[in-house]
Design goal:
The strands form 4 sheets. Strands 4, 5, 7, 8 and 9 form a 5-stranded mixed beta sheet that branches. Strands 10, 11, 12, 13 and 14 form a 5-stranded mixed beta sheet that branches. The longest helix has 31 residues. The protein is mainly alpha-helical. A hairpin with a 2-residue loop joins strand 2 and strand 3. The protein is built from 41 helices and 14 strands.
């Protein structure tokens, strides 16, 4: 039997196949068949352009009468607004008729989905046959969304009110208001779109008139959860909308619904610039014109539209513009009509930028509609009419392309198609004779948009004067094939003879390499401008080891030669180039990181490293959470590949900032580790949430859980637990859960809770460990879990306690000293902390403990310390980092029974403080050990930044190690048969 490969079939072949399937569909009636045959020609033509339409009709032949229903769109644009109101009324009347028969939430889901599929099929039929303009299609899709959301909301409100009563305020029913964001808010929703929502209600109180009264917060939270499920859940009838709640205050970590006073506090105290940008489009979907809605609008309006223009708004717009350009570079979005250069997003940014700047003083610019905003910009003489008219025309062209792409298969895509049948369908709808002709026109449209986008909040660039002889020399050095003696003469006044020789040989070798690359004329032109700039900056900054720094720089340039956008970035931003030279001078590790991940060059656009990195650990964590949330909001929740890239890019960028501050010596070593540690914590929290959502979609959640609890916890050991992460450190993790033995998950595919948590742990490991284009997020080690590699990936808290009490070795209790709760269910995290304290405060024989600790240390040194190395392994050497860590662990295990304060902190520095306060060691000893530990860790960090593993021998290092060894021998004496000896 030959395989029927639909990817290789033509539009007509696919349409004919669908036609036959429709005529023989099990659910087709004779009356349906008669309507179908009467409209044979138009239906066949529409099938060639939309497989979604064909599949919907095959599943539901009875939809055909509605789909082919006669329709005459208005000819004048003035009639569009009234048409929108008529659409909503018609949809509402039809949906209300069907909702009257709904008796359960399952019935509700079926009615919503069938209504959505029927009406979307009708819109598709009209669109792919060009029976209506794109403006009307956008209004139809948006009006349909409004009605479906409202219909689901009101049914669920009454359903819950029957049990709990209704929320009341001033003797009137109180409602939850639904803010539609983005294109839904602007009534410009795309065909296969997710919907961004925010839920809020007027004030606290308790419900009245039901069988069981509950607080308003509880009632509206249940309502919000049920509304999301009614719209978002995938059933046999599909999905109404993917619901995205990440724009709400505090994002995924915030409450699902918030009362007005809390909402107002958030936006006044914590609202960020991007949230103002998002709020421009916010519209109350269920606007009942009540006093409560007016109250809500009075909260949001002053946050969104400022009466005055402040410089922070312009800075924010510049930053958002850079963010868009950065994303285009990183994700290579050249074939994406929404996110690519000159795409839909850039038109939206153009309009919203003027709304943020002028909207507070010009009410006409407070419109949710992009098209009306563009008209207002002309009417207010802010933007020329020919610009706004061209932008409107180009925007509508792109929106028509977007709708056509999505109507082909009802997929949320803005990427140009690769399959021939999809390309053919697209050009037929768009009215082009060939796909190449369409691409030429599309390129012209997007180039026009991008030019207008680039003119927004322009920034000036420095240039060289003609009298700058050094720059002229640098141009000659690159563009002219100078002999070595000519090169020496050219730079004799600026450089030493050895530097000139080194630079000359490196440049010659680089030129030879470049001849093998085909980078195109644009890339070659950019490189010819950039190389003299690099030489100029290098000679002016005059770092040590100029040839070595140039070699590192050219390594970066070689890595980005094929990506001219990054060459342009360096050429057009002199400060970025200067910063790159400084970083390459100070760290080969940084140079290698930038070479491997050129996206890090974007970080140099905003050199915050030196000024704003020295923040305390709590502020740093909050900043990371806010920044990561903003990044994650730009990624679809179910796009696992993009999520993984997003986390990795975020980590790389933050790590670069920390390293840059570290090598400038503006950040003490313990602050470096603090920041690297809380960075890992924030990423872990985000990864766990994403993994949980992915598992929940597949299996549901364990049935014992209530609210947002996960019954799951991540425990950090080692450097993560002790706030001592370094660059490239792996994460020592243990996963715990608290599910009762008999519990299973509540999803369609139900599994035992224990199995669910093991799969969750595997998923987290996959998200962390997988190597992508942007490397590995973190290397993880789970060997410290009960029974090590032989144990379960996720252990019950009771099993963990039993193992630690009855089976764990001394070295496992040493490891527990540095363990702490990282993220997860608060109750479970507290249970772990109690287990840790009870184990650490057990009574122990001091001599037996000392012997165990010494034996383990000697065993580690035997296995891990290189025997034939002239250099020093700072971790494993006698008098090194691990010796200090073992002393701290011994002090806790030996004394926590009588001094409970010894268990409070998992990090070595504070353990020594606690030991001194408890008179276990004297203050002078504590300070000496802390000082030695910080110095050794600082050297270790800098070795990483220098991309090397071992330290050179030095008098300072010998003195530190000797002092540590004295403290070791004082503490342990000759346990294990011998004292430590330092061989210098």
């Amino acid at each position: 039997m030959p395989i029927d490969n639909e990817n290789s079939m033509t539009n007509i072949e696919l349409a004919e196949k669908s036609w036959q399937q429709l005529l023989t569909a099990p659910a087709i009636s004779e009356s349906d068949k008669a309507v179908i045959k009467a409209h044979c020609e138009t239906l066949m033509l529409s099938f060639t352009r939309s497989s979604f339409l064909a599949e919907t009709l095959i599943q539901n032949p009875s939809f055909v009468s509605r789909i082919v229903e006669p329709y005459q769109p208005p000819e004048k644009s003035e009639a569009l607004q009234s048409l929108g109101n008529t659409m909503s009324s018609d949809y509402l009347a039809n949906l209300d008729n069907e909702l009257h028969t709904v008796a359960s939430e399952d019935d509700l889901m079926q009615v919503l989905r069938e209504f959505r599929n029927k009406e979307m099929a009708r819109i598709t039929f009209l669109d792919v046959l060009n029976k209506q303009p794109i403006e009307i299609s956008l209004m139809q899709v948006s009006a349909l969304a409004d009605v479906l959301i409202n219909g689901a909301y009101h049914w669920l409100y009454q359903h819950l009110a029957a049990r709990y009563g209704k929320p009341q305020s001033h003797n009137q029913d109180m409602h939850m208001y639904i803010l539609g964001m983005g294109k839904l808010g602007g009534k410009e929703l795309n065909f296969s779109s997710d919907i961004d929502l925010i839920f809020t209600y007027p004030e606290k109180g308790e419900t009245q008139g039901g069988r069981k009264s509950v607080e308003h917060q509880q009632f509206f939270t249940k309502l919000a959860q049920k509304l999301i499920q009614a719209l978002n859940k995938v059933t046999n009838d599909g999905q109404v909308y993917r619901v995205d709640m990440r724009l709400r205050p505090f994002g995924d970590s915030g409450p699902l619904v918030m009362h007005f006073a809390a909402l107002e506090d958030y936006y006044q105290d914590q609202g960020r610039h991007w949230e103002r940008f998002a709020m421009v489009k916010a519209r109350v979907i269920n606007d009942d014109d009540s006093q409560d809605v007016k109250w809500l609008k009075s909260i949001l309006h002053p946050f969104t539209f400022r009466r005055y223009l402040d410089f922070t708004t312009l800075d924010a717009l510049r930053n958002m513009k850079k963010l868009i350009a950065t994303e285009i570079r990183r994700r290579r979005l050249s074939n994406n009509i929404k996110l690519g250069a000159g795409g839909i997003r850039e038109v939206e940014f153009f309009a919203q930028s003027f709304q943020l700047i002028h909207g507070g003083r010009e009410p006409a610019l407070q419109s949710k509609s992009l098209l009306r905003t563009l008209d207002a910009l002309t009417e207010l003489d802010i933007v020329e009419r020919d610009v706004t008219q061209q932008l409107k025309s180009d925007y509508l062209f792109l929106r028509k392309v977007e709708h056509t792409l999505q109507q082909a298969q009802d997929h949320q895509t803005q990427t140009l198609p690769e399959l021939p049948w999809q390309q053919a369908a697209l050009i037929e709808v768009m009215g082009f004779d060939s796909y190449s002709e369409f691409l030429v026109h599309l390129d012209t449209v997007m180039a026009r948009i991008h030019a207008h986008f680039n003119e927004l909040v322009e920034e000036s660039h420095d240039t060289h004067s003609e009298e700058d002889q050094l720059f002229t020399a640098c141009q000659d050095a690159w563009r002219i094939s100078l002999q070595e003696d000519e090169f020496t003469e050219t730079f004799g006044k600026h450089l030493s003879a050895s530097d000139i020789r080194g630079i000359y040989s490196i440049l010659v070798a680089f030129k030879d390499k470049q001849r093998n690359y085909r980078i195109g004329q644009k890339g070659e032109d950019t490189l010819n401008k950039l190389l003299p700039e690099i030489l100029y900056v290098l000679i002016n900054q005059h770092p040590n080891y100029i040839p070595q720094v140039l070699d590192r720089l050219l390594g970066v340039i070689e890595a980005i030669t094929g990506r001219t956008t990054y060459l342009d970035l360096l050429l057009e931003n002199p400060d970025v180039l200067k910063q790159l030279v400084r970083l390459c001078e100070r760290s080969d590790w940084i140079a290698q990181e930038i070479k491997r991940f050129p996206l890090l060059l974007d970080e140099l656009l905003t050199p915050l490293y030196l000024g704003q990195q020295n923040t305390n650990i709590h502020t740093s964590k909050q900043e990371y959470q806010l920044e990561l949330r903003e990044i994650m909001l730009r990624i679809e929740q179910d796009d696992v590949e993009m999520l993984m890239d997003g986390w990795r890019q975020f980590k790389l960028c933050q790590q670069l900032r920390i390293a840059a501050s570290d090598i400038s010596e503006s950040l003490p070593i313990n602050n470096v580790s603090d920041k690297l540690t809380v960075l890992a914590e924030v990423i872990l929290e985000n990864v766990v949430d994403a993994a949980w959502m992915q598992m929940q979609q597949r299996y549901g959640v364990p049935a014992h859980l209530e609210g947002t609890n996960k019954g799951f916890a991540v425990i950090g050991y080692g450097k993560l637990g002790g706030y001592e992460l370094g660059y490239g450190s792996d994460l020592d993790l243990v996963f715990l859960h608290n599910a009762p033995r008999s519990i299973s998950t509540d999803g369609k595919k139900s599994i035992e809770a224990q199995q669910f948590y093991i799969k969750l742990a595997q998923r987290i490991m996959h998200l962390l460990n997988t190597k992508t284009l942007f490397g590995q997020l973190y290397e993880t080690d789970l060997r410290l879990r009960p029974s090590g590699n032989a144990g379960l990936l996720c252990c019950h808290i009771d099993g963990f306690e039993k193992y630690q009490t009855e089976e764990a070795w001394t070295w496992e209790h040493q490891a527990l000293v540095r363990a702490r709760a990282i993220c997860g269910d608060p109750r479970l995290l507290n249970d772990f902390t109690q287990v840790r304290n009870s184990i650490l405060t057990r009574s122990r024989n001091a001599k037996t403990l000392a012997d165990d600790v010494c034996k383990m240390r000697l065993k580690m040194r035997e296995h891990l310390l290189s025997k034939d190395n002239d250099k020093v392994d700072l971790k494993q050497c006698v008098g090194g980092i691990t010796d200090i860590e073992f002393m701290a662990q011994y002090l806790v295990l030996a004394n926590a029974k009588s001094q409970a304060a010894m268990t409070e902190y998992p990090d070595n520095l504070r353990i020594f403080d606690a030991a001194a306060k408890s008179n276990i060691i004297d203050v002078a000893t504590a300070h000496k050990l802390q000082k030695a530990y910080l110095k050794l860790r600082e050297q270790y960090h800098h070795l990483t930044l220098a991309d090397t593993k071992y330290a050179d021998q030095s008098e300072e290092l010998d003195a530190i190690r000797e002092q540590v060894t004295i403290h070791w021998n004082t503490l342990f004496g000759t346990c294990s048969g011998q004292a430590l000896k330092l061989n210098l």
